[in-house]
Amino acid sequence: MDFLYQVTRPLLFRLDAERAHDLVTAMLRTAGRTPLLPDLIRVLYAWEDPVLAVEWAGLRFANPLGVAAGFDKRADLVDALALLGFGHVEVGTVTPRPQPGNPRPRLFRLPEDMALINRLGFNSPGMVAVAQALRARRSRTVIVGVNIGKNRDTPLERAVEDYAATFVALAPLADYVAINISSPNTPGLRRLHERDALEELLRELMRLNRHLPHPRPIA
Ligand SMILES: Cc1cc2nc3c(=O)[nH]c(=O)nc-3n(C[C@H](O)[C@H](O)[C@H](O)COP(=O)(O)O)c2cc1C
Rg of the chain over CA atoms, in angstroms? Predict the structure, then answer.
């Protein structure tokens, strides 16, 4: 693993950060569909031990290590990431309608700080495409969270409608739902932290949640 990282990192760092992401995820996708390779990857990388299990909100995670939102915005890497041993994958952020996000370049490496500046701006294929991808999943072993947001061109006064539409489309296909009101890359989004706006949003999502056959934890 260490060797693999030492060899691939310098090569990937020659590419623009987003191109490197696209390349690696395309390889992951292909590996997940190649006969026998998934079993090999699982044996090499996944570590199963009941001592690692974690419970949260009635969900049982095989281990506490998950992939945060932003890596798999299309929800088509869930199975491949599960093979690598992650206990959960949070897909998204997903917006109701497809949107391209900010113009490239929009990801910047800060190698000295071992950090990355992200200005993606909710590039999303939209909730319909993500719903399709979640329905097409083969394995059901890993916990899947769906992280939802609003479209950039939806006025803030109508933000609740965006979250509600995405919630209705995707919550039934996920184990939990995360509400993204913190991205600095969608103008005004953080105003949803204000008490009245947040109460209105949470009240509506909890109302919709009660109508599901199995209500989902909301984070
Ligand atoms: C390139 C990139 C894209 C991200 N996109 C999202 C996103 O779409 N939605 C979200 O809720 N968080 C997003 N995040 C934030 C991550 O989910 C995570 O919270 C953040 O990277 C902090 O975790 P870390 O310290 O393990 O990196 C993104 C982060 C990065 C680096």
Answer: 18
Token pair for 124: 């999303």
pLDDT greater than 70 at residue 163: yes
Catalytic residue among 124, 139, 182, 183: 183
| Joined tokens for residue 179 | 């509400």
Phi, psi of 178 (to 5 degrees): -110, 135
CATH of 2-210, one of 2.60.40.770, 1.10.238.10, 3.20.20.70, 3.40.1110.10: 3.20.20.70
Read off the pLDDT of residues 43-78 as tens digits, 9 standing for 90 and up.
Answer: 888 888 999 999 999 999 999 999 999 999 999 999
Distance from C-alpha of 147 to C-alpha of 145, rounded to nearest angstrom:
6
The pLDDT tens digits of the residues spanning 11-45 come to: 999 999 999 999 999 999 998 888 888 888 888 88
Which residue's CA lies nearest to atom 19 of ligand 1?
68
State how far the Cα of 140 lies from the Cα of 32, in Å rounded to an integer. 14
DSSP letter (8 states) at residue 51: G
